Amino acid sequence: MDEQQLDLSALWDAHCYHEFETRDASATMATMVDEPYVNHIPTMTGGVGHDHLKRFYTHHFVNSNPEDMKMVPISRTVGKDRVVDEMLFCFTHTREIDWMLPGVPPTGKYVEVPLIAIVSFRGDKLYNEHIYWDQASVLVQIGLLDPTGLPVAGVECARKLLDKTLPSNTLMKAWATSEGKPV
Fold first, then answer.
1. Neighbour tally for 105: CB within 10 Å
2. Fewer CB atoms near the end CB (10 Å): N or C, the chain?
3. What is residue 27's predicted lDDT score, i.e. its pLDDT?
4. Residues 169/175, Cβ–Cβ less than 8 Å
5. Which residues of the chain carry a pLDDT beneath 50?
6. Cα separation, 148 vs 50, whole angstroms
7. Is position 178 within any domain?
8. What SS3 class is residue 109?
9. 183 occurs within a structural domain
10. For the chain, what is the largest distance between any 2 Cα atoms, rounded to a whole number of angstroms?
11. Where are any strands of DSSP class E within 101-152?
């Protein structure tokens, strides 16, 4: 089938359904090419090739996500051979989440973090995923990073994504100095 006729959005949704709803590593792998790869950029987790990725999904991903985990869609762009998904990833840190917080014991803290997935396809199968999020925001929200004096924020990042009217430039101390200056 011609790639332009494929519903890449539906293919990505099916993949996510098996990752997060059925939590079935074999069904997830069935949505992918024979030798796929996944790279969670901030933590360098995922896998390259069928065997490593299935091991990752089975033991470190599909069953390590907290029960209340949810994804709130923000935007989706579909191209000829890829999908770019912007979402809010939300969860309570009730268990170790190997792929996002490797080695960090549960804190019980609630987290909301903007997340971007860039997903490439070959035909009707997923070829790779590059997943990005602001790890500093996650660490601030679970209490492992003190934002004092650092240009980082916690849940405010998620709130700003959902509400453009919230103030911008709050981390820029010099922002106030430009008030009234010619532009």
1. 8
2. C
3. 96
4. yes
5. 1-3
6. 43
7. no
8. coil
9. no
10. 60
11. 110-122, 125-133
Q: How far apart are CA 63 and CA 22, in angstroms?
A: 10
C-alpha dihedral over 89, 92, 96, 100, to 10 degrees? 20
CATH code of 31's domain = 3.10.450.50
**pTM of this prediction?**
0.91
Among residues 81, 113, 68, 62, the alpha carbon closest in space to that of 11 is found at: 81
Cα(131)–Cα(144) distance, rounded to whole angstroms?
22
Residue at 144 is within a domain: yes
Query: What does each C-alpha distance from 114 to 30, 64, 67, 70, 160 come to in angstroms?
Result: 27, 19, 19, 12, 10
Q: Structural domain tally of the chain?
A: 1
Q: What confidence score (pLDDT) does residue 4 get?
A: 52
Name the one residue in this structure whose structure tokens are 């969860």.
91
CA distance 45 to 181: 46
- Domain residue limits at 60: 3-167
> Does residue 100 lie in a domain region?
yes
